[in-house]
Amino acid sequence: MPFLGPTMEGRNQTFQHLKPICVSLSQDVLALNGPRGDVAKITRSVQELKTVVAKEVPNLDPKLGDYIFFPLSQLLKLSQKVPLRCLELCLECIAIVIEHAWGQHIQTQLAAQIVILCTLMAEKNPRRFAFGETSEELKTAAFLCLKNIFIAASASADCVTFFRSESNFPQLGQTISTTLDGIIDSEAVQTQVAGADSLKALVENVADREICASFLPGIVSKLTKILTPSTTMRRSHKVLTTCLDVLEGLLKSTVGTEEQVVSNGMTSDNQSGKSSVIDTKWRENAATQLKPALQSVLRLSEHSREDVRESLAGLCLTLLEHCRTTLANCSQMALETVFQLSAGSDSDNSHTTTIRLEMLLKADTPFANLLQSTINDWLQSLPTVMQGSNEHAKVRKIQQVSAAYGLIRDAGLETSMLDKRLASALRDSVVITLQAPSVKTEGKDFVSSVQSLDLSVLDGEKTGTEFSNALVEHRGQEEVFSCIEGFAKVVSSSGSSAAFAGDLARSLRYSNAEIQVANFWLLLTATQNALQCQDDISSLLDLGSDEGKAAYTDCLEELYSLALTILNSLSDEDSLPDERLQSLALRALALRAQIAGSDFRYELIDSLYPVLHTLATPSTELQRDSMTTLNIFTTACRYDSVRDLIVENVDYLTNAVSLKLNAFDLSPQVPMVMVMMVRLAGSSVIPYMEDVVESIFAVLEGWHGYSMLVEVLFRVLRVVAEEGARAPQLAAIENGEKSKVEAVIKEKWRPTNVTELASSLREKRAEESPERERREKAPQRPWKGSEEVGGEAKENDSEDELDAAGRPTDDADLPPPAPKTYGLLLKITELTQHFLPAASPSLRTSLLSLIRTSVPPISKHENSFLPLINTLWPEIVSRLDDSEPQVQASALDIISVLCEHAGDFMRTRIIELWPGLAEVYRRTARDIVSNSGSGKVDDPKKRSSGREIISVTAGRSCTSTFDRALRTMYDSPTHYIDTSMRLVWDAFVEALTTVIKHVPLSPELFDDALEMLAPVLDSRPDIRKALEDENADAVWLLLTKRGRLTSLECPEMPEALSSKGIVWPIVA
């Protein structure tokens, strides 16, 4: 079996495979001495031999190795006559033989000869060879042979003794030098890797302490060239890791402690009684010379490869564990590097490094002193580093200090004095980072607060409970603040961190600007981490000590108090609180709620309004943080949703808003708190806002000259109206008069036929005949006095009482009282109309939109709705002549809504408004034609008759022109059409269609409306359907006159006639 060694049968088979090749190769080599030598054939034979040897590796033994080596040795003697490729294959084959055939049984003299040969071939300009310069492949093969020789020699005592002998020192030195030069000068990565592997095999398997000490200066000098980072030569990570391992082994064997060297068995020469190279003076010189070399090597700490950093960490740990006495001058930089390498890394090697350092810290007091001294130096240099522009250096320094502090904490050492210095250093670092040049955002103006009413942040943020970093202004600061935050959490988890928190708390109230922000953020971070960690531990263990928790609980109370002060501060434009402080204050309130749990409900009276006030700010970040705070309040106080949170506490929220409005606090956030309440809680809070609405109109009455303020307040009222219109209470209103109105609406005009006319005349004549007979003669005596008719009067009174008792009166038919939400919407709508003449077009549009929103829910209570129409109608109609198209379109929309919900009640008003509607039509049609480029429509003379109003399109050419203009407006996207013009036309079409559907019109007005809507009958089937429902004959006649019907189509037969089998006659 192969793993038990080669079998006899396997060796025989291998020999049979090797024999013809080796015999042929020997013969070909001998032929080289004569004129018939074939170099190409020899190269092919060596290639074939290598292939067979590599294939038969499991069956090789020392004897087969000797058999294979014989023709190769003859070939090497004639190396001047063969090409480089042949020598490369020869060395590769010998390397396989050394590793798998000879192994520990290699002969000492043979090994020495191979070392000499490979050393010569690995030189850049080898001597005693025909070729002037070696190749990379030949050097690679030579280094591979050297590695296998040194590994095989380590198992042979004779070989080890020979290589360590004094007589072999020159050759060993030559091999070391050639190998290092090969690594430095070679451009091929595989050559560098092979050279590094052979050097490592030499140092670990052959060289003892004296050899390493003798060649240490030269080896370290050349290793420094290899390991020093350079932009011109980027070494392979495999070369770097191997060379770092070689350097670590050299330092451990030469300048390490004596106990470690003895344990490694590297004092053979000393045991023989020879004088050692290593003495006190040698150690001093080594320490002096090694420091600059190690400084260059330790620059590899910034290498991108993890394996390189791990090897460098191993070198640093060797310096700290084994070389700290001799290389005391290198201990601090090794300590800095190892913390730099382990900080911010989660690899297994990083955890191993931390464990080794912790063990060293507990076992060695001087090392603990060194570590504390190093941390103090780092803290002193930290502000200087933070003022630089290298963000990576800042992060690395913070991670170094954090890792070192964590090590001291885990070792159980006292850190109270260090905690105070940490508080100052971290505060300065935060301040420096905040004051660093960055893109500054301009302060938000009043217009921004109006736009913030849209608050898209409310969508999708109703369940988030995680805050982002409040101090990060740009991406470059994110990693720095993340490291500082992590460091503060490490400090807060220490048992003696009360000194750290106390120093921050003492300076919190009396600091300002960035210093206060830094104190607040650090203290909040430490407090949150400390309290939450202690709660997690307390839920599992009863440690019996609450001193740390008590200290951080006091800090939390201080943060909570200051947070309320910040959020409740006056919102003057000259003294706006820092947005970062507001954001941190929100986090403090959220933390207080999380710690207090359901008991925080009693604190909502103080904390809920400031959060809603902040939610109304123009800053998107503050809005998001406020929403997160509300979510945390909801979870901590065990409400089902934010809606329930607002509704349960709506009483003092509305009181707070009313007090501020009554005090004429005109900051934009005050009224917008209402918006936040309504948006978050919906229509549930509308009934509680009557006093607030009254306060808003009081402010509007006193400050109506400030258009922007008026616009803000009315947009707030618009939001209230939008949510109130969705209130479920309004859906329950039953209008007893609705059926009567619908009955009136259905009694539309229709043509009277001859039969109906005759019947009507007969009925009228029949009614007049009895009336003429019942006419009384003139009285022949005076009227009776009141006394005489008293009895009759009483009789009539009793009849009236009987009627009252027997039949329900009008009072009994009154609908039930409307809910509060209805009254609030009615009041808002009634008072809004007084501000419609405002100078601001956007305000006028907003007011009309508010009325448009309120009309549908108000219409459900007819006794209030119909008087409201009388109130609003003059102002709405006057807006049709407004200079702004948006306002005209909004007015037309309201007219459409009023007609839809009031029906027949609007008949007289529409008749009176008809000339105005016709004027809107003429004006809009003229603008559309002019804008389309199709020509201009002559402005017709204004006439009072409804039939003459539409003369703007009476002519066939004018009609075609207007039709083409409309088609251009709708069907040609590339053709520019004024958007406002199209807006007015669409609103007019919808309004006129709604009038036809819901308001009874005379035939004349219907014909006018038909003429005005004729251009859209083909493109709008819904409008054509509405017109045909009123008078299908008129629509058919119009389309026929205009040539819109492709054939003689008849209108649809009425259902009453078609059911009797009556059909239109067929025209041939």
UniProtKB/TrEMBL annotation:
Lineage: superkingdom: Eukaryota
Residues in TTI1 C-terminal TPR domain copies: 753-926
Domain TTI1 N-terminal TPR positions: 15-342
Biased composition (Basic and acidic residues): 761-796
The protein's name: HEAT repeat protein
One Gene Ontology CC term in the entry: cytoplasm
Taxonomic path: Eukaryota, Fungi, Dikarya, Ascomycota, Pezizomycotina
Residues passing through the membrane, by range: none
Species: Hortaea werneckii (Black yeast)
Region (Disordered), start-end ranges: 757-818
